[in-house]
Amino acid sequence: MSGFEIALLENKEIVTLHLKGFLDAHTAPDLETELQKCISNKRYKVIVNFQELGYISSAGLGVFMGFIEEIRKNGGDIKLTNMSSKIFRVFDLLGFPALYEIFKTEEEAVQKFT
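RE: above sequence
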């Protein structure tokens, strides 16, 4: 069984989720829980760092679709950063670059929020 970890960092009004391991149907609920906590705590500026993510399934992609509307409705956004070319290809194939801003670095995403 592959592992999955989320490290959460808060910097003023921005929350950054660092994903590590494998995001699939078994681990997607962990990400859902973290995003729901952000909404419950009125933290609507979210950056997701994929630097240490090795795999993402359609279930993992679905988590982002499940939360983006509510986050944007509250004046926030989910910005994606540090994707390997393998992870980016999955997002690109499904048209995510048209829906989400994807940055090479976390710093670039932070700048877009400020």
